[in-house]
Amino acid sequence: MPSLLLEGDAPRLIDEWQDEPDLWNLVRATVDERGGAGHFILTGSAVPKDQKKDDEEPPRHSGTGRFAWIKMRPMSLAESGESNKDISLAALFDGMGDIASTSKVAIPDYAHLICRGGWPEAVLAKGPRIAYQKSINYVEAVINEDVHRVDGVERNPALVRLVLRSLARNITTLTSTQTILDDIKGHMPTTSIKTLDSYLNALRRIFVVEDEPAWMPSIRSKAAIRTSHKRQLADPSIATAVLGIKPEKLMRDFNLFGFLFESLCVRDMRVYAQANDGEVFHYRDSSGQEVDMIVSLRDGRWGAVEVKLGGGQIDEAASNLLALKDKVDKDSMGAPAFLVVLTGTEFAYRRTDGVFVVPLGCLVN
């Protein structure tokens, strides 16, 4: 019986609880009976399926007042040990002054870290070859098993693979769903937009796809703010695994490397922002100005981040950040807490214009 799983010392961890829907109501009832907090930790790799009126199982209580939801993400570089953790996001929000640090993560290391990903098994793997295989195994499980189990709907693994490949090729861009559909139709001409949407929704429910929403500030400009989400995956290794890319390929294709490095930065920044009760957005308006990341906290503070793999475009990135600072209506949004160029370079420092240059290998929450 499911109720037997609730017996034992607290906190009691129950993995993949969504596979046994009765557990939710049993846990809720047990929490009400015991009182207090910290009795159970329910973990799952998918959002529970939506209940319908004709479901045979009893309705699931909302859990209000009994459950707190925490989104778990792949490990950041601070968690996996590559970042030296010298530059704190919290300190940047609190008005950090001059900074100085040296990252030990070089460009070839970032190529490896992108392909390895932040999966615990990959991080702990003995050697790069095994680490890359762990990421590939994860993606193959998504394609052949997880995307079907989320809601019991049978899906074509070949089409799942095509969807992931198209997303990987368009990572960190504003590519439309229609463009992705056109890409897929080159291989499966009968695919419809409705079918594609169902596949994308299934991938979101198992936390593989996590697009980057648009930031919507008040601005002192007639430019219209674009509302499209940026295409993002939960981890850049999903892209390299489904495309069959290893670090050597990235070192020969710095255009692709740059997109995937941005995805790595977004992954880590989401972890650090979440620890500070914040979220990560992107900004783009009709004048063509765009900023890779806006980190916004619930208390209203915000900071802007441009991502550059190498050092050659730091000046351009800093100018873009300063332009956004001037454009945003400070009366309603407040001034930015910081402006950061997040890089794959070696040194962390503050420029004379106030913009911080921070290697990803120095950052922590």
Report on this model:
The mean pLDDT is 91. This protein has 365 residues and is α/β, with parallel strands linked by helices. It contains 14 helices and 11 strands. A hairpin with a 5-residue loop joins β9 (347-350) and β10. The chain has 2 domains: 1-70, no CATH class; 77-364, no CATH class. It is globular and about 65 Å long. The strands form 3 sheets. A 7-stranded mixed beta sheet has the order 4-9-10-8-7-6-5, with helices on both faces. A two-stranded parallel ribbon has the order 1-2. A two-stranded parallel sheet has the order 3-11.
Report the sheet-strand fraction. Answer: 5-15%
Q: Largest sheet, described in full? A: 7 strands, mixed
The overall strand count is 11
Give the helices and strands as they follow along the chain.
EHEHEHEHHHHHHHHHEEEHHEEEE
Helix content: 40-55%
Number of domains: 2
Radius of gyration: 22 Å
Which regions contain 5 or more consecutive residues with pLDDT less than 50? none
Structural class: alpha/beta
Distance, first to last CA? 42 Å
Overall 3D shape: globular
By DSSP (H or I, 4+ residues per run), the number of helices equals: 14
Short description:
This protein is an alpha/beta fold and 365 residues long.
Spell out the key features of this protein.
single chain, globular, alpha/beta, two-stranded parallel sheet, 40% helix, 2 domains, 7-stranded mixed β-sheet, 365 residues, 14 helices
Secondary structure layout:
Layout: E1 12-15, H1 22-34, E2 40-43, H2 77-80, E3 87-88, H3 89-93, E4 101-102, H4 107-116, H5 120-123, H6 128-149, H7 157-169, H8 177-185, H9 193-205, H10 236-243, H11 247-252, H12 254-275, E5 278-284, E6 290-297, E7 302-308, H13 314-327, H14 330-333, E8 338-343, E9 347-350, E10 356-359, E11 363-364
Parallel strand pairs: 1-2, 3-11, 7-8, 8-10
Antiparallel strand pairs: 4-9, 5-6, 6-7, 9-10
Helix pairs in contact: 4-10, 6-10, 7-8, 7-10
